[in-house]
Amino acid sequence: MTPAALATLHQHLVAALSTPPQETRRLFHGRGRCWPELEQITVDWLQGILLVALFKPLSESALIALHEMLMDLSHTPAWQQSGAHSLLLQQRYLTDSPTQWLLGEPVEHWDICEHGLHYRLDLGRKQNTGLFLDMRYGRQWVQAQAKGKRVLNLFAYTCGFSVAALAGGALQVVNLDMARAALSRGRDNHRLNQHDLSQVVFLGHDLFKSWGKVAKYGPYDLIIIDPPSFQRGSFVLSKDYPKVLRRLPELLSAEGVVLACSNEPEIGPDYLTQAMASEAPSLGFIERLENPPEFPDSQPDSALKALVFSNAV
């Protein structure tokens, strides 16, 4: 990371903090390859906390320079006026993704707001905080579509889609994820939004061993599929995604809708449309949701894919 690249990042952050977002947002998305030498750095605004994440090692001198730039940033008028009080640096490329609190009092949990809904994040303890910010438009879309519907949220993680669906008036949401701790945080997220938990089902199971449990609550009017690209011992996107898609016809209502997602850079949207045509041909492609503008990408097909399919086509 050259001094010129570091100066570019500093200028970008000063400008962003001069008019800080009212809700949680990404402030800098280097991973979209739009800024040379900054491809492996992201900066998120967590409503008072600035989370800087590195996805590739820096030389010792570059890491020191980054530290110095960030501390300089905390003394600018933009920082002071933004209401920022804490600064974290996460090294995502290391085992357990350790996080340093460069400024502020360390906390384990932090509650944030997105589109008027509340979510609890984990800071400094896990690789991911608990909410993927690039899926902001996807959650808004689900909220807008969910009224009166029975929703299945596969690979639910901390149940962000479930929170959005209940806020949008869903009759019931079934969340499935192998990680029961993530589902427990999903319960917290629903409670933060004062939702009726009797409308929410949490299944802490391996999907491929639990189709019967999933089918029991169907048929579903809306199914969300947002898997990890790779999860050791349980999911490999290129091999296992088709296995999920071929089950859709038996799980969906007559006019059911599917939101099929992938964040794997090496797999473009054509993979999902072709796989759906092969495994669930009754479902027709409707649209690809836009990604939020704070996630620019020089190669759009490598960015987040959130594709809508429907039985009603």
Describe this structure in words.
There is one protein chain. α1 (3-18) runs parallel beside α2 and α4 runs parallel beside α5 (160-167). The protein contains ten helices and 16 strands. It is globular and about 60 Å long. By secondary structure, the chain is α/β, with parallel strands linked by helices. The chain folds into two domains: 3-106, Transcription Regulator spoIIAA (2-Layer Sandwich), CATH 3.30.750; 133-310, Vaccinia Virus protein VP39 (Rossmann fold, 3-Layer(aba) Sandwich), CATH 3.40.50. Strands 10-9-8-11-14-16-15 form a seven-stranded mixed sheet, sandwiched between helices. A five-stranded mixed sheet has the order 1-2-3-4-5, with helices on one face. Strands 6-7 form a two-stranded antiparallel ribbon. The termini are far apart. The protein has helices at 3-18, 60-73, 77-82, 136-145, 160-167, 180-192, 211-216, 237-245, 248-251, 269-279, and strands at residues 25-29, 41-45, 49-54, 86-91, 99-103, 109-114, 117-122, 150-154, 172-176, 200-203, 220-225, 230-231, 235-236, 252-262, 284-288, 305-310. This is Methyltransferase. One of its GO terms (biological process) is methylation. Pfam families: Methyltrans_SAM.
